[in-house]
Amino acid sequence: MKRREFLKILGTSLTYHAFKVNDVIASNKSVVSLAEGKDYEKITKDAISALGGMKKFVKPGNIVVIKPNIGWDRTPEQAANTHPLVVKALAEECLKAGAKKVKIFDRTCNDPRRCYETSGFNAVFKNMKNVELKHIEFERFKKIKLDGVFLKEWELYDEALSADVFINVPVAKHHGLTTLTLALKNVMGIMGGNRGYIHRNIGTGLSDINAGVKSHLVVIDATRILLDHGPQGGDLKDVKVLNRVVASTDIVAADAFVTTFFGKKPEDIEITLEAYKRRLGEIKLSNIQVLKS
């Protein structure tokens, strides 16, 4: 082969690969990462690593809030709450990235003392340095102007609002009213007042809240999912073990992707569809790139 022909072929090859890279960048697809395995701490860290690692989100000296679902007096096996080992892995990664402090809390539905104990959170975080597992202090709810479509203002938890990084960590499960409860709905745990009010227009109300409170990172616990009788559950027959964790910076894309774990279409979930219409994220699966680790 002559040198000129070789350089011509090489140049064509380089142009082709550059086009492919630029094409991916130009596509602006939302990205979610999916990690699978029985070691829940490892797959959680793998899911974050696929997005670029926790240092991409947490900087030295940051105060980080991790908001799991600890709403129910249920064991980890019953899939009503976020698995504590998923949250433990996230807290460790935050501290490794230089976080000054990690705060973990939820406004529970059942008695908070029983929820934190039965869920396994008390045991997991008992002696973890620079991590504060705390109960909600109701005097810390502050009325915040939202200028939403349905909610013009609402009482929100000030420690969630003042955090440098807010990490939204729901468990994936069935819900009797909304079909599913995922990351968009998990922000109800930072709402004060009569939360039942937003059930009058829940898709719009939750979009108002999520538009006002950004989840910098979403990690959905699908290690085991609740298929029926949610959100509280109780019967292990309703639980399906998937051993999966999903992460994304796009809250709508994360919810949309995990909806498929239940054999449903994202567009059929009112909360997800409304958030997409409000341009809070991507709902179309064809526009979501899945990174598997």
Question: How would you describe the overall organization of this protein?
Answer:
With 293 residues, the protein is α/β, with parallel strands linked by helices. Helices cover 33% and strands 23% of the residues. It has 10 helices and 12 strands. Strands 1, 2, 3, 4, 7, 8, 9, 10, 11 and 12 form a 10-stranded mixed beta sheet that branches. Strands 5-6 form a two-stranded antiparallel sheet. The termini are far apart. The model is unreliable at 1-26 (pLDDT under 50).
Short characterization:
This protein has helices at 3-27, 40-50, 84-96, 112-118, 121-124, 158-162, 183-186, 202-212, 251-259, 270-277; strands at 30-36, 63-68, 101-104, 131-133, 141-145, 153-157, 165-169, 171-175, 179-181, 217-226, 239-248, 288-292.
Helices, strands, pairings?
Elements: H1 3-27, E1 30-36, H2 40-50, E2 63-68, H3 84-96, E3 101-104, H4 112-118, H5 121-124, E4 131-133, E5 141-145, E6 153-157, H6 158-162, E7 165-169, E8 171-175, E9 179-181, H7 183-186, H8 202-212, E10 217-226, E11 239-248, H9 251-259, H10 270-277, E12 288-292
Parallel strand pairs: 1-12, 2-3, 2-7, 3-4, 7-10, 8-10
Antiparallel strand pairs: 1-11, 5-6, 8-9, 10-11
Helix pairs in contact: 2-3, 8-10
